[in-house]
Amino acid sequence: MGGMGGMGGMGGMGGMGGMGRQQQQEDLRMDMRITFKEAVLGVKREVNISRMDPCATCNGSGNKPGSTPTTCQKCGGTGQVLMQSRTPFGVIQSASICPDCEGTGMRRDPCTACGGDGRTRKDKLITVNIPPGVNDGSRLRVRGEGNAGVRGGPTGDLYVELSVEPSAEFTRDGRTINSSVSIPYTDAILGTEVPVATVDGSVRMKIPPGTQPGAKLRLAKKGAPTPSRPNDRGDQILTVNVRLPKNLGGEEKKLIEELAKRGGV
Predict the structure, then answer these.
(1) Strand 22-34, strand 158-164: pairing
(2) What is residue 152's DSSP assignment?
(3) What is the per-residue burial (b if ≥16 Cβ within 10 Å, else e) of 58-91?
(4) Burial grade of 42 (CB within 10 A; 0-12, 13-18, 19 or more)
(5) Is the pLDDT of residue 85 over 90?
C-alpha cells in the first residue's frame, strides 16, 4: 500500500463574515503516495486528518453560551471605520476593518472553550476516493473536509496531492501501459504461449512463430483509463525481447548452420 505525507493549510475564497469583512475559507492540503496499480484502477483510502471543527460549546458561533451579541458602537454595525487623511491633492477617505469587532459589526462575549474563534482542533477519519486513471502529480478535491470557518464562516476543502510509486513491471504513457517479456530464440522461431503480467493479474498470451526481437504485441483494454472516462481503458503494449545463446553446443551449432544453408534463419 502507498503512504500518506503531511498536511498543510491553504487559502481559498469564502463568504462575508459580518457586514464589512470577507472571510476566506481555510483549505487543507495533504500528500498521499499510491501504487502504480492503485493509480490505474482507483482505490479508496482511509486517512486521519487534523482540522478545525465547529466548537461544540458554542456551536461555532464564538459566543459565550447564554450571551447575546450587541451592535458594535465604534462602527455602528458596519464592520468598517472610515478614516480621513489630508494630502496635497485634497482629503482622502478610506475604510478599514473595525478593530473593536474585527469586521463582524457585533461585539461578543467570547466562548471560553474556543476563545471566541468558534472552532476547536479535532482529528477525523475520512475516506478519500481516488478515481481510476490518476497520474503522478494529480490533485484531488474533497469538498467540505477542510477547516471550519471562523465563527460560522465557510468551511474549506481538502486537497490531496498524489504521487505514484514507480513499478518494476510497467511504465505508463497516458492511457497506454508498457511492459516486456523475454523468450528464448527457439520460442521466437517456433512460437509459444507465455504468462504476461497486467494490472488486472496474469494472463496467457500467444507469441506467434517468427516473432522478431523488439516486436510489440497489443493487449486490448489492459491499459489505463482517465478519471473522466473510468470505463474506457487503453491498451497494454508488450515488447518481446529475444534471448540469444552466448555459447552454442556442437550439435546445436550444426543445426543452425544447416538452417542457415536452407535460408531458414
Answers:
(1) parallel
(2) G
(3) bebbbbbeeeebeebeebebbbbbeeeeeeeeee
(4) middle
(5) no
- Written as one letter, the residue type at 76 is G
Q: Left, alpha or beta for 185 (phi > 0: left; psi -120 to 50: alpha)?
A: alpha
| CA torsion through residues 200, 206, 212, 217, sign | negative
C-alpha cell at 168: 518494476
CA distance 14 to 156: 8
2 pLDDT higher than 70: no
Measure the CA dihedral 15/27/43/137, to 10°: 120
Cell of 161: 496531492
- Cell numbers linked to 197: 503480467
Contacts made by residues 92-99, CB under 8 angstroms, sequence distance 24+:
95/20, 97/20, 97/21, 98/20, 98/72, 98/74, 99/74
The string of pLDDT tens digits covering residues 198-209 is: 999 999 999 999
